Amino acid sequence: MSCFRRGVCFLDVFLVWNSKKPKDYTHRMLARLLYLQSTMPRKPRILPESGMLHLIARSNNRVPLLKDRYDFFRMKDLLLKICPPALISIHHYSLMNTHIHLLAWVENTEILHPVIKSLTVSYHHYYTKKYKYRGHLWHGRFKSVLIENEFHWLQCGRYIEINAPHAGICKDPRDYPWSSYHYYADGVFDPLISQVKIPDGIERWKLGRKNTCYREFILAGIDLDYQKLKKQYERCAC
Which domain holds residue 18? Predict the structure, then answer.
């Protein structure tokens, strides 16, 4: 039943509890279940001690998170300060208007929650001050998907970098400046990227070296079914 979802408003509990039939057993039980559900703690994330993770944070009700280039620069600056390579090593990323994607190696997953919370809260303060925004900015807590093998890693990295073309923002990922595509395809330095892990068969990045094979690999993914990819690489998120 939809009424048993997490985050139920206490006003709903009050209205049910004070219904026109105060002695109705069904209403009483419903009110109690709603109250218990609203006070239940979140289930803990089940993650290994360390691993490669696909991290996703979305805005509430698709509110534009990043409206102008200064917002994008602010988000990158916060990622650099709050997610240093010693804690979270970002390998692929895409900053979109309503959400962000990170593919990162996390050496100690116990620090993941406080680090991402610090990121989202810091940006919330910046956003509310700049745009006089009121209310929830982020859609719940961030999602995390464990990358199981190198094939999953490469495919998920591609999925992240073709987000902009699939969203209709551009036709070629080369035309979107807010992703890790330029680092791998064009050899452009990006302070956010920290390659502590490299899949077999993939050459280590070198400044100024264009990687035509990587570009062809990315472009080959644009014609794939995006919704199918979304289910595949955002599945089992916790």
Answer: 2-39
Dump pLDDT digits (tens) for 150-165. 888 888 999 999 999 9
| DSSP label at residue 180 | T
Residue with tokens 């916060």: 78
Picking from 234, 217, 219, 210, the residue whose alpha carbon sits closest to that of residue 164 is 219
Tell me, what amino acid is at 26? T
Same domain, 23 and 64: no
Do 26 and 64 lie in one domain? The reply is no
pLDDT at 75: 97
Question: Rounded CA gap, 78 and 65, in Å?
Answer: 14
Of 58, 148, 49, give the one whose Cα is nearest residue 102.
58
Least confident of 4-8, 19-23, 51-55: 4-8
Question: Is pLDDT at 4 greater than 50 in this prediction?
Answer: no
Question: Which amino acid is present at 184?
Answer: Y
